[in-house]
Write a structure and sequence with these properties.
There is one protein chain. The protein is of the alpha/beta class and about 475 residues long. It has three domains: about 190 residues, 3-Layer(aba) Sandwich (Rossmann fold), CATH 3.40.50.300; about 150 residues, no CATH class; about 40 residues, no CATH class. About 45% of the residues lie in helices and about 20% in strands. A nine-stranded mixed β-sheet has the order 5-6-4-7-8-3-9-13-14, with helices on both faces. The protein has a three-stranded antiparallel β-sheet with strand order 10-12-11. A two-stranded antiparallel sheet has the order 1-2. Helix 6 crosses helix 7, helix 7 runs antiparallel to helix 12 and helix 16 runs parallel beside helix 18. The chain is elongated. The two termini are about 35 Å apart.
């Protein structure tokens, strides 16, 4: 069997059961309450499996100690040299948008692709703010500004960077008077970029795109009402401004010393040491942008020539989830990507995707494409009922005492006897949960004295050898981090 054969068993769950490489490529969802032992139980087992098997990967971090924990994991398996730890002051940097413009492949530098990367950050920014009657207008207006800015940058400089986008928008004309102002003409990066592009020999199609963008900045934007223009501009610069200072500017807007392709070409493991708990919203936005760019790189690779699997690991993954993840996960198996998304409960994921019916539909679509479900101890009713319904119901024997009329779910009476003092006892077959919701409140949560964390594992269409069913109760020895 070749190292990357999809039928290769990788994660042993019992003496006769294991998750194969192919099943891991179908995605893993890990659910469990705080303190249930999921990080030191199933997530530890998955991490060590990926490292031992030679995967490359990307690790997103929420807690400040996660990078240090992964370093210890890699050291135990002799893979310290494969780590790329992205942290302030470190040697690893990637100018993200410039990379997207200059990477190999015919799809590089496409305006719509660049726009989509930045618009995903707007999606993160808008969560929890609620909608409005004019929401679509503002979204379309900001998209128009961003697309035209990207076209000017491409025409003038042959590439795009977050810094140039920010500066071009910041120095765009604010009124018709600016167009006549000597000071604006002398100091505006926007005008300078337009003039540079005008002097260049551009392909005819790009020339048309540039002229359209230039007419927007000269003939449309300055003539908008002040409040309208200001709202459109700040909607975009509120995103780019995050990358214009401190650690994020240093790491993602300067030079490039690592690229996503290193994960599957060299087996490198990129750890984004920008934890949300430490860096807050800036850490979340930077890691989300990195994740999207890595996902694109994974999707376009030639797996026949470069078959090494990669993993995408996100504990508390709701912090980085966007609507793009649903689309990515639908084809992740063919891209040989093992996604691991861990979160405490379903409501946290629904909320992260905007809440309401739309957020729930997006979350459910993503969850449906994470085929392996690992359920640790949980007190959330919604999550536990969802798990029980997914595992399904079956006809089960129930014994009842006394005289009663069969309930709506009773299939038939199998045995009826007269007990002491004429008590009527019957055994019936009743449709019920294979794993009732209360089971998930009773799973072992780890810690002293046994240091094991219990979980119920479900994979659709899989009949586990040990249980003979589509679910399996597993005890994970807790890793000492």
């Amino acid at each position: 069997m070749t190292p990357w054969n999809l039928d290769r068993p990788l994660l042993r769950l019992s003496s006769v059961d294991a998750l194969t490489l192919g099943q891991l490529m179908q995605g893993v969802l890990v659910l469990g309450a705080t303190g249930c032992g999921k990080s030191t139980g199933s997530l530890y087992a998955l991490a060590m499996t990926f490292l031992a098997a030679g995967f490359g990967g990307l690790v997103l971090t929420v807690k400040p100690d996660e990078a240090a924990i992964w370093k210890r994991y890699a050291a135990r398996l002799g893979r310290e040299q494969d780590l790329i730890v992205v942290s302030p002051g470190g040697p690893f940097k990637c100018n993200l948008l410039k990379y997207e413009c200059e990477r190999p492949g015919p799809g590089k530098a496409q305006t719509e692709n660049l726009y989509r990367l930045l618009s995903s950050l707007s999606e993160l920014n808008e969560r929890g703010q609620g909608g409005s009657q004019n929401e679509s207008y503002w979204r379309n207006a900001q998209a128009q500004l961003l697309r035209n800015t990207i076209e000017i940058c491409k025409a003038a400089y042959g590439t795009v960077s977050i810094g140039d986008i920010h500066e071009l928008i910041r120095t765009a004309p604010q009124s018709p008077a600016d167009l006549e102002s000597d000071r604006w003409r002398e100091q505006s990066f926007c005008l300078r970029s337009i003039l540079i592009a005008e002097e260049k020999e551009l392909p005819s199609s790009q020339r048309k795109d540039f002229e359209h963008a230039a007419s927007y900045f000269i003939g449309e934007l300055p003539y908008l009402a002040d409040r309208t223009r200001s709202s459109i501009v700040t909607g975009v610069t509120g995103i780019t401004d995050v990358f214009m200072r401190g650690a994020l500017r240093e790491l993602f807007c300067t030079e490039t010393t690592f690229i996503p392709e290193m994960t599957y070409l060299q087996g490198r493991i990129v750890i984004l040491d920008l934890s949300v708990k430490e860096f807050g919203e800036t850490g979340r936005m930077a890691q989300t942008l990195c994740k999207l760019i890595f996902q694109r790189a994974f999707e376009r690779r030639d797996v026949q020539n470069h078959p090494r699997p990669v993993f995408l690991f996100a504990d508390e993954g709701q912090e980085f989830t966007t609507s793009d993840d649903r689309v990515f996960q639908a084809t992740a198996r063919s891209s040989r990507v093992a996604t691991v998304l861990a979160t405490q409960n379903l409501p946290s994921l629904y909320s992260a995707l905007g809440g309401g019916d739309a957020g729930r539909q997006q979350a459910d679509a993503l969850l449906g494409n994470l085929q392996t479900k690992v359920f640790h101890a949980n007190g959330d009713t919604i999550t536990n009922e969802w798990a029980s319904n997914m595992i399904a119901k079956s006809w089960q024997y129930r014994t009842t005492l006394g005289s009663s009329t069969p309930g709506p779910n009773e299939h038939r009476s199998l045995l009826q006897t007269i007990g002491p003092q004429g008590t009527n006892s019957s055994v019936s077959e009743q449709l019920d949960f294979d794993v009732p919701p209360q089971t998930f409140t009773q799973l072992t949560m780890g810690g002293s004295p046994d240091f094991v964390s219990e979980a119920v594992i479900f994979h659709p269409g899989k009949s586990w050898n040990l249980s003979g069913k589509n679910h399996l109760r597993v005890l994970f020895p807790q890793g000492v981090s």
